[in-house]
Amino acid sequence: MGAPVKTTREMLLEHLKQSGGNWISGAWLSRELGVSRAAVNKHVRHLQNVGYPIATSTRKGYLLGGPFDLVLPEEIRDGLRTRIFGAGDIVYLDVTDSTNLRAKDLAAGGASEGTIVIAEMQTAGRGRKGRGWFSPPRQGIYVSLILRPTMTPSEAPGITLMTGVAAAEALLSLTDLDVRIRWPNDLMVGGRKIAGILTEISTEMDRIDHVVVGLGVNVNNRHEDLHPQIRESATSVLIETGQALARAGLIRAILEHFETSYAVFSQKGFEPFRRRWKELSGIIGRCIVVEMISRTLAGEVLDIDPEGLLILRDDEGRKHRIVSGDVSDRSDAPKPGRRARRRS
Questions:
Q1: Do 224 and 129 lie in a common domain?
Q2: Are residues 276 and 290 both part of a single domain?
Q3: CB count, 10 Å around CB of 293?
Q4: Has residue 207 been placed in a domain?
Q5: Among 283, 277, 240, CA closest to 261
């Protein structure tokens, strides 16, 4: 897929960004863009309406101020080094119920692989098991990607774990945070959640029609901005570093890491990511409790298998392959592999 042709509005914005904080006359922009001055002014008004701080003067022209932190398609594509994700359709929504729901509708309607849905705010952000994802405006990243992988449904669980590695690497490339992965779908910093992944799969018979990968990241949330119910269990880049992070830059990093990882995953599955995933998770050898829909298991984590399933040895020494569940530490667990002593 080649680079998309830039629109007049995108070229106008590019000129404003390259001006170095200097005024640019409307006459010069009109000549450079090959449109009338009235058209230039119309595009500028649109950019102002979506959040760009552009000053106007009848004598001087236009001046792009700052700082601004927008996740518009123009900002995401500015410097993006991908061929699929972000190079095609980017559906931007100021407010939506859930980016995953919108992406699923688009995928069902035939949207191509690489289509992205991103929102400034979600009113019904979703996590695993129907849980909500706190999605206040202009603080976090709420993005969903449409995939059309050629693999069997049994191979799909590895997509979530592969995404976790890609998102962790993106955060590590831009910050000094000690990012950790909590199986199967959370990114943690200091024991608190900073990001979550929701993967939803649509199948036809024994094949996958499409996959929607949703990612929510707490970026510039202050502690007091977090919902009271999650203030002790959640964190953000701003809370951890004391500095705001440009969200569009983080989205670009996520898309670039994801695209590279997805290309490998499509050819070789989860196996190439196992070692790095285990390094980032630190879960191997830990005693945990896994709460699943139908039962709860406790024991020692032995490994992650090549398909991304958790291998757990319970207190009776039995091994289990677990597809998904909620994990918590069990520091008081009996030593795995030995039968627990009966109490009389």
A1: yes
A2: no
A3: 7
A4: yes
A5: 277
User: What end-to-end distance do the CA atoms of the chain give, in Å?
Assistant: 69
**Boundaries of domain holding 267:** 73-280
Assess contact for 195 and 187: CB atoms under 8 A: yes
Cα–Cα distance for residue pair 144/153, rounded to 1 Å:
20
Question: Do 245 and 201 share a structural domain?
Answer: yes
122 and 271 fall within a common domain: yes
Whether residues 106 and 38 share a domain: the answer is no
Three-class secondary structure of residue 274 per DSSP: helix
Nearest to 233 by CA among 141, 297, 328, 310: 328
Contact, 273 vs 266, CB < 8 A?
no
Task: Give the whole-angstrom CA distance, residue 271 versus residue 90.
Answer: 30
Q: Which of 280, 313, 338 is the last residue of a domain?
A: 280
Question: Are 240 and 311 part of one and the same domain?
Answer: no
Alpha carbon 156 to chain centroid, angstroms? 18
Closest listed residue to residue 238, CA positions, set 224, 253, 219, 215: 219
Amino acid code (one letter) for 222: R
CA 143, CA 131: separation in Å to the nearest integer? 17
What are the helix and strand counts (H, E) for the chain? 9, 14
What is the predicted pLDDT for the residue at 344? 27
Instruction: For residue 296, report the phi and psi dihedrals to the nearest 5 degrees.
Output: -125, 135
Same domain, 107 and 206: yes
Which CATH number is 314's domain given? 2.30.30.100
Q: What is the pLDDT along the chain (344 residues), one digit of tens a residue?
A: 455 678 899 899 999 999 988 999 999 999 999 999 999 999 999 999 988 999 999 999 999 998 889 999 989 998 999 999 998 899 999 999 999 999 999 999 999 999 999 999 888 876 655 556 677 888 999 999 999 999 888 888 899 999 999 999 999 999 999 999 998 889 999 999 999 999 999 998 788 999 999 999 999 999 998 888 888 999 999 999 999 999 999 999 999 999 999 999 999 999 999 999 999 998 999 999 998 888 899 999 999 988 888 999 998 999 999 988 888 887 644 444 333 333 32
The pTM score is: 0.87
The tokens 């943690």 sit on which residue? 188
